[in-house]
Amino acid sequence: MAKYAINGGKKLNGVVFVQGAKNAALPMISAALIPMSGQTVLHNVPLLNDILVSIDIIRSLGGKAEYYKDEQTLVIDPSGISTHTLDSSLTTRSRASILFLPAVFHRFGKVQFKGVGGCNLGHRSLNFHHNGFKRLGAIVEGDEDVISIAATRLKGNLVYLDTPSQTSTENLIMAACLADGETIIENAACEPEVTDFIEYLRKMGAKISGEGSRTLFIQGVSRLRPTEHTVMYDRLDAGPLMMAAAITNGALTLIGARLDQMRILVLKLQQMGVTVEARGEVVRVEGLKKLKPINVVSQPYPGFSTDFLPGLMSLACVANGRSDFRENIFLDRLTQVEGLKTLGANIEKASPTHAIVRGVEKLAGTNLSAPDLRAGMAYILAALRAEGKTVIDNVYQIERGHCNVPERLSALGADIKRVAE
């Protein structure tokens, strides 16, 4: 257990590097178990709690995984994997554990899974995973978080997702890679992380087309081979860093931020008066003393990302006027509201998915507990602006998705420390 202690009121200035993308690295780590032998090498892998859980899962299955911190490189050797049952004491710590289903299935023709972790954002059904495997010819048994999958051989088919779920898309791509014939996935997720994952699978020998669109075509192959790949930079890490410059009236230069991957966030920041511009391969963000209000409606990519909503709400808390936030992805995305109100924000929940924020002159430090990853980052952003000291506990949630937060922010002028218990 650890806490972050933050003394607010400091402008952030300087240069900061964006970390590797968690949501691209996690399916790559899982897919590295599909080859029967050999070593896969992944570069630019951030040292996050969710990554560490995936490494533990590989080792619990009998595989080898070695992380080299200084090089941010992960080497995976699946040749010793000897069981088709995933350890529930590990799977309950990370929602990404569901991504191990296809790899283990391809090795044994069956897989057993119980318990899935991650952020508590309301009901997050696994039906897309159940039904997708069934469409490919597998026998699937279980309920919401208990799955047993078995088949002698998967067969390509047409698969439709009711909503473009990223993990469901990635799981079905992996399942279809070694299926007989062609699989078409309609209404697939098209996030940049999915595109990077598909590029990685192609290096392994997969035949996939349609990335970046809602329709994917996968032609089954007989095997995949180990490969080497550099994970893309994390737009979901770049976004909060940009917001940190905005809320502190600071000026940051970001290395590794791709504005074309977060166009709507850039637009919203600019609407608030923040300067955001690309200068060659770097991005410059300059805040404003008094931010302008905005309206936000989350949508699947390429719409406004639900992951950016909590952080942008922190900015709206000190904007000049009324802002409206409407969430269309998760029922319980607004978990940050009560904590922000404790800091002094004026927020009204008009419904479980609609919050009205009226900007206030100042926020005041307090004690908070991060309910989930994105809400925890929203608290950090608000604490950077608040007067006095804010202490945030349960930072395990934050460190599931952001690495070295105190070190990176301190280097930019923030007064933040990680206090271990």
Please render the helix and strand layout as text.
Blueprint (H helix, E strand, L loop, with lengths): L1 E6 L5 E5 L4 H10 L8 E4 L5 H13 L2 E5 L4 E5 L10 H4 L9 H8 L1 E5 L12 H9 L3 E4 L3 E5 L7 E3 L5 H12 L4 E5 L5 H12 L3 E3 L5 E5 L8 E3 L4 H13 L3 E5 L7 H9 L3 E5 L2 E5 L8 E3 L11 H8 L5 E5 L10 H6 L3 E6 L2 E5 L8 E3 L3 H13 L3 E5 L11 H6 L4 E6 L1
Parallel strand pairs: 2-14, 3-13, 9-10, 17-18, 21-22
Antiparallel strand pairs: 1-22, 1-23, 3-5, 4-5, 6-8, 7-8, 10-12, 11-12, 14-16, 15-16, 18-20, 19-20
Helix pairs in contact: 1-2, 1-7, 4-6, 5-6, 6-7, 8-10, 8-12, 10-12
CATH class of the largest domain reads Alpha Beta
CA-CA gap between termini: 6 Å
The general outline is: globular
Helix content: 25-40%
Average pLDDT figure: 95
Second rung of CATH, namely the architecture of the largest domain: Alpha-beta prism
Give a short account of the largest sheet: 4 strands, mixed
As for the CATH topology of the largest domain, it is UDP-n-acetylglucosamine1-carboxyvinyl-transferase, Chain
* Helix-strand category: alpha+beta
**Strand percentage:** 25-35%
Q: How would you portray this structure in words?
A:
By secondary structure, the chain is an alpha+beta fold. The protein folds into 2 domains: 2-18 and 233-420, UDP-n-acetylglucosamine1-carboxyvinyl-transferase, Chain (Alpha-beta prism); 22-230, UDP-n-acetylglucosamine1-carboxyvinyl-transferase, Chain, CATH 3.65.10.10. The chain has 13 helices and 23 strands.
